User: Fold these one by one.
Assistant:
Number 1:
Amino acid sequence: MWTLFQIELFKIFRRPRTYIAFAAITALIGMVQLGLKVDGQEYASFVMADFNSSFALEGNLLNGYFVCFIVLQLLLVHVPLLIALIAADMISGEANTGTLRLLMSKPVSRVEFILAKYLASVVYTIMLLVWVALQALFLSMLIFGTDDMFIMKSSYAVLIKSGDVFWRYAGAFCFAALAMTTVAALGFLLSLFAENSIGPIVATMSVIIVSTLLSTMNIPLFNLVKPYLFTTHMITWKEFFDLRVNELNEAIPGSLAYPEKIKTSALILLIHIVVFVGAAAVIFKRKDIVS
Amino acid sequence: MQSLIQVSSLTKKYGSFTAVNELSFSVQKGDVYGFLGQNGAGKSTTIRMLMTLIEPTAGDIRIFDLPLSTHRKEILRQTGAVIEKPEVYPYLSAYDNLRLFARLSGVKLSRAQYMQQLEQVGLASRAHDKVKTFSQGMKQRLGIGIALVHNPQLIVLDEPTNGLDPQGIADIRNLLLWLSREQKKTILISSHLLSEIEQVATRVLIIDKGKKLVEGSAEELFDPSKTIVELQTNDTAAARERLIASNWAAHLRESTGNNIKLQMNRNDIPALNRDLVQWQIDVLSLQQQHSLEDYFLQVTAGKKHVDTFSN
């Protein structure tokens, strides 16, 4: 299993396609950072327009923490599509090139092979998120500096003290990693059903888009399925940036407003991963390799 | 002699289509076992079942005297295979591909040993070039190198000379003969080309539509006294007349259009040519038939031949 895992990682990181996602992320984040650096104050004034009439806000609002939050909001919709590029190609790509029959004629267990491949795609996903973190958080901190973080929710605003932010990003990135590995698991499962990469990649993207639409549309019929869709829970990372308030309506530093929501979402995503990967292992164990 | 592969009543069905039908055969230790059949005869399906890529619908496979269904890993550890086109990772070098598949086979060799393996298949000078720059023949040789890298007892090759030029085919043939004679490997080789198998095989199985047609020793199958010779002359009618009136009459098998077919010892071909020249008939073409299609016609139409072909 360990050898298989090492080999899969070796293959992923020796393949040029792998670096497309890293390049795309670099370009996307760089564009957002450049835009905010040039016209950021104007953007911040526009966003804060409603608050400026009621509150006097001082300090560096457009700091690295705030920029990272904006980047994540924009980017975490697109990262699943980049992950699908690799995960949905894991088996179908091997079938397409014909290497699957050579691999499976070697003395390796099919279940171990599936698990090693999935774990390798998890490592790839995590590395992609680390890359996002390095650019979106650390580079933004360098470019824009640090200060208290001011973000707006649908009906209220949250002010998080500068010293209380970093661990929240750590939590948010860990949660995002869980969400993205769920996407990887879906792409991985779908990659079993085709002998070319395009079909599973498009299918994974389609499932994500349709599920996201169902998760965001407020229609009673769809509300029944919403709690069970993984896309509903993928955005729960934002809960790390909401604080509990005391009886005086003052924010409690180091607190989370809805920790149960984070736990429930994490559990539902984990269940999705187990179901997707488990199904992939069962199907692949019995699959005839005719490519 | 010890049976290395024992296949009994092997069947594979896809819905109502039967790709392999109650196929039974055995490969002895040290055999170069030629597995012949036209395209679509069921050769690749059978080989895929031997390599556990496809689950049989029915039947039993034993390799190294172990049931394949329960001892897959032990068996594959001692088996090397090239199944159809040997596709490898184009973005990796020949060396990296070889090392990767060696590790999957459970062996870790030194750099010198990997290079020696590449030398054996004539790729040492291109060891560090990416496979995407290789010709089909080079990929084929790399595939064979991968099949041999863990020094397996049993080598399974499915159409190993596909896409190779004549020199490449000769190189593979020499490699197979060396593996069989010097290294004492057991080889199962499939092909749709009778000429290819004829030169290396010690035993042969011919299948058609998933069913066994003939199994036996190559010596008997390729008996020179049963060669089919196709004759074309400038005057087919005169040639036919002369042949019927001569000692060649017993060898005549078929006469269609401008072709006359005889079944005879191939050593007698010069004598036939001499007679035709003596009868003042110009010989346009006189050739042995080697295509499997023709051989099938011979086997299926000439039941007598099949009956006399012993296992």
Number 2:
Amino acid sequence: MGSLVLTDLYASVITDDGELEILKGVSLTIESGTTHAVMGPNGSGKSTLAYVIAGHPKYRVTSGSITLDGVDVLSMSVDARARAGLFLAMQYPVEVPGVSVSNFLRTSVTAVRGEAPKLRTWVKEMKESMVALQMDPSFAERNVNEGFSGGEKKRHEILQLSLLNPKFAILDETDSGLDVDALRTVSEGVNTFRAQSDAGVLLITHYTRILQYIKPDFVHVFVDGRIVTSGGADLATALESQGYEQYSPASA
Amino acid sequence: MTTAPPIDLSPRLSSLDPDVFDIPTGSEVEWRFAPLTAFSRFFQPIEGAGDVRATHETDYVRNVPIGDVHSSWLPTDRPLAVARSLVRNAVVVDVPREQVIAEPIVVQLQGAGDTSYQHVEINVGAFSSAVLVIEHDLDRDICGALVVNVGDGAKLTMLSVVDGATDAVHISGWHTTTGRDSTFIGCAVTLGGGFVRISPSVTYAAPGGNAELLGLFLADGDQYLEHRIFVEHEQPHCTSRVTYKGALSGPGSHTVWVGDVLVRRGATGTDTYELNRNLLLNDGPRADSVPNLELETGEIIGAGHASATGRFDDEQLFYLQSRGIPETQARQLVVRGFFAEVLGRLNDEVWRDSMMSRISVRLGLSTEESTSE
């Protein structure tokens, strides 16, 4: 059993006009094998939370800590965090022109596993994972995220999730921009990953839609840079009917 | 032998007589970026200069006295005219007509002494097809011409690599003439040299010619690398594609790309596009990019250009690193990806991979665990 622990985390975004505090004391413990949903309105800082855990250079942690199985994450480089077992499925995956998906995936898997997979088993593994996500084999020859549709980008993120097999996965608005069929496929990919591993999952979302497919063990409401209330899956149902207004700072 | 300068884009005086050309002062549009202190030694005849020779002669490659070469090319600036008047050896590549040569013809060029003049004359006979790889070993200063004649219906793919000492001065005037329905793909890979000025130009002798000018350059330290392209469309139904990409790292490197395309009144049905992209790998380097397009007729299929110079994209780096890829390797992937578009056009995996490896080495990046499949 492992855990990803965020303790009283404060972080700012670095802009041309200076720093702006976004995370204002986030504490959250995710145990292996559990799925947490963090839900909140636009601009609440949900995506910042995801980026800070992954180590995006645009954000600066001003106080608090993040540990993975007791080891300090904040002192690790971005790539070291990934090799330690963290994975962030991004809301807006980045295009990398001239780099093919197959080349990218193999380079990434080699880095995370610490050794290059054998070519024959690798090709088979990649193809099987793509088939499971209903991706055309020609996809592997395309450049990373270049000209991908919204659905293709998200499938590609979940493909990486299944191949990299992290200890903890953060899924940032993975449901955004997906039609019902794509949402179902992507959710099945996430559920297969959950069933086959003992990973912890942090699902960041604005809507409850994806929670119909991926059942969370815990739901946290995120407003103005911190968790304001936590509960079980039924909390999402309440949010669906009542919205976030009751948690907004103005009505508090 | 002197022709009057045209009054339009790139007024081009051409002559075998060096004194027809004034000594550049730096105020001329053609010389305004160049550090003249480096290039000026080639403005006057140099006593005791040697000749560039091909190190190996083959069925297709010979060293011959310049007097035996029947070249229609005329120099278009002073250093090229000086070099033409003093060069004694010509490297001649002759591909007879109606030959399809599968294996690349490799020409290794080498100078002699501190300074050498160069004349390379390449003739690809009608309906022939060949791949030519020219390696310039720049351990000394070299100035001269590379003249290419592509016969009717012929196809030549030429990869010209300039590598070597980063204090060497190199001036190279390429001139390609394409025959009816012929295709020329010319790729300039500039990795070495301290002060390099390469001017590829293309003219079309007959309708239906296709020219693709590719370029890839890597400037480091205090290198000055200039590529000055001139494509003159005089014939109808010809195409030109210019794609040059450069990567620069500091502290004092400077690259110049000038792309002049002129579509003459009679060149109806022309299709032309030119593109230059420069990637700044850190703070300090300077990249100048100047596309020029002049149209004398509107009856064309297409004409356009694009130019952009940008910094290394930190978001790309973050994305790759967030997948466990260490920073050095992530940078390598991005730079190789940046150049892949150019090298992909060569349609030759062996040379593409070979160039990629050399680029990686030059960038100080490991080629171990090669990223190409």
